[in-house]
Design brief:
207 residues, alpha/beta, 60s Ribosomal Protein L30, Chain: A, Alpha/beta knot, 2 domains, three-stranded mixed β-sheet, 21% strand
Length: 207
């Protein structure tokens, strides 16, 4: 459960709200709600019997200390960002950077799609310039040009840059290198979360 994930990662649970006759999860103050209240206030059709207020905190590490990063450039879909966070944690990335205009990392749909990874992967908001200034080499992703992802240079301090769902990365984006995932069939490109997962694990394998 996400509340347990947040607590296990050291996030402060300010309060927990539970449906009647349900067990509580955290050590925070617990408030038992009346019958049917959880269903009216939750954002899902069939909510879990526990809700919590979790205090936001800033990233535990800066880009200057990271060597393996994903940059999500104006990714709009909460499910995509949640999957990117989940894959980033699984692949061992140091941080995920979101450019201005990206969906809020703590949107409820992002949190659910991340399966708790949002509480374990440092998340920062940064421009391409700020990522570059931190000493990271920006590797842009494209559907049609650049090195094959299996042959690309993933060494050193790198940031894998994933483009927006609708437009991807512009060919003139200020990145240091380009990679592509070769694919067949009619699709012009892969879903951004799927592409990010493939690239993160290939980079991790090579590193």
């Amino acid at each position: 459960m996400l509340i347990a994930e947040a607590a296990a990662a050291g996030w402060e649970i300010e309060a927990e709200f539970v449906a009647p006759d349900s067990a509580f999860i955290s050590d925070a103050p617990v408030f038992e709600l009346a019958e049917g209240v959880i269903e009216r206030v939750a954002s899902t059709e069939r909510p879990q019997p526990n809700l919590a207020i979790v205090r936001l905190r800033s990233a535990s590490s800066s880009l200057a200390e990271a060597s393996f990063v994903v940059v999500a450039d104006r990714v709009n879909d909460p499910g995509n960002l949640g999957t990117i966070l989940r894959s980033s944690e699984a692949a061992g990335l140091d941080a995920v950077a979101l450019t201005p205009g990206s969906v809020d990392a703590f949107n409820p749909k992002v949190v659910r799609a991340s399966a708790g990874a949002v509480f374990h992967v440092p998340i920062v908001v940064a421009t391409f310039g700020e990522v570059s200034d931190a000493g990271l080499r920006l590797i842009g992703t494209s559907s049609h040009h650049g090195d094959r992802h299996t042959e690309a240079d993933w060494s050193g301090r790198i940031a894998i840059v994933l483009g927006n769902e609708a437009h991807g990365l512009a060919d003139q984006a200020e990145v240091d290198a380009w990679v592509r995932i070769e694919h067949q069939g009619r699709a012009e490109s892969l879903n951004v979360a799927m592409a990010g997962t493939i690239l993160a694990f290939e980079a991790a394998r090579q590193r």
